Amino acid sequence: MSSIYAHRGQPRHRHREKKSSHKPLPYRAASSTQPPSPSSLQATAASESLFQKQPSSTAPQPVDQLFRARWLGLFGAGAAALCLGTFTASFWIANSGEAPQYVTSREPVVPTGRPAIESPVEFDQHLDRSEWRFGITKLRRRLAAEATGHVLEVAMGTGRNMEFYDWDAVTTEYVSAGERNRSKLAKTGWGTKENLADLLEMESFTGVDISTAMLDIGLRRLRQVVPHGAMEDVLPKQPSFEQLARSEAGSGVQLLRGKVRIVQGDAQSPLPAPPKGVDKYDTVIQTFGLCSVRDPTLLIHNMAAVVKPETGRIILLEHGRSWWDLVNGLLDRSAKGHFERFGCWWNRDIEGIVEVAKSRIPGLEVVEFQRPGWATLGTHVWVELRIRDAKPKGGRDTGADESSNGWLGSAPLVHLG
Ligand SMILES: C[S@@+](CC[C@H](N)C(=O)[O-])C[C@H]1O[C@@H](n2cnc3c(N)ncnc32)[C@H](O)[C@@H]1O
């Protein structure tokens, strides 16, 4: 008996008794004048604890009491049900009826041939907000880490990959020999001479886009992200591509003695040749460009024409159709509006485009095809391609056509640094 009272004297129990004195429980036995026997006390304690765990198991609480005690939970459940209902209804309405079918390169508005993005500033700010959330920033960083040797970025837009590139080799003359050595050693994990010889860095950068308005923002970003103030002397704070290039279509701007080149032109024409003395690019990068040009297969063909066979890589980060029909239905329905705002067809079948390119471009091989991240519902793809060198075996060309000399073979460039 003493042990039972000792238990009842503990704070947790005291609190329970205090509470119950305010709200008499409907099933509680009437109090007896007789002192309780040990067995009846045990039974009471057991039934109280049972009641505490399941208050409504024997008799219902009045609704107002129940509501007062549970209003937060009830409110939350109601709000969740409302959200779910609204989402399901809008999803159902959006997906009822036939989705418009656009055939790649025959969409109602031809993307290429005009700067399709109405407001490059709006485009850029919109992406600032959403890319981190959906894991795109992380993918851009991963992609830039693969950009080594002589790099070409096609449809570079406002230069959203530029802050992630390794500019050290391009800007060597802006740092002391000691600083440069330390940075190289750090990259190799303070390794041996052999490690240093194997170190891959970006040796030159060439960026191409059809839109000078996008390139204006790209140049501004370049000034901000290239380290050691290397661009500050050669680019004004608010650069205008057209003013800097000051020449006919197809020309570009060269910076840091040709190690950085920004070029305006249609990537469906042969692409710029690599810097003087270099035969082909080591890395060709392209993010969210296959969705933006009229003929994405031609674009892949042009990239294949300028990349080094075997060791060179074409790396694409794209968005398009998902695994799920439900998601594709939504993409189809909103595709035209999205194109008008952002200049890209986000419902294209990128996997299908890569397959077609593979079947048409001799030597083109898919090294990697991934749908990274869950947040984008399978709409984003990472593709790594290479060109197998068919020449030594069969004596036939690889598809890298003779016209790969590109615009820079003939077009004049303005040298700014
Ligand atoms: C959706 S944006 C992507 C921009 C950038 N690559 C990025 O990741 O933010 C597509 C870009 O492709 C460019 N573009 C569209 N058609 C092109 C073409 N035929 N040649 C070169 N660039 C083109 C647009 O001007 C735009 O900058």
Automatic annotation (TrEMBL):
Q: Does the keyword Membrane apply?
A: yes
Composition bias, kind Basic residues: at what positions? 9-22
Comp. bias regions, Polar residues: 49-60
Q: Which InterPro entries match?
A: Methyltransf_Superfamily, SAM-dependent_MTases_sf
The UniProt record lists the keyword Transmembrane: yes
Transmembrane intervals: 71-94
Protein name according to UniProt: S-adenosyl-L-methionine-dependent methyltransferase
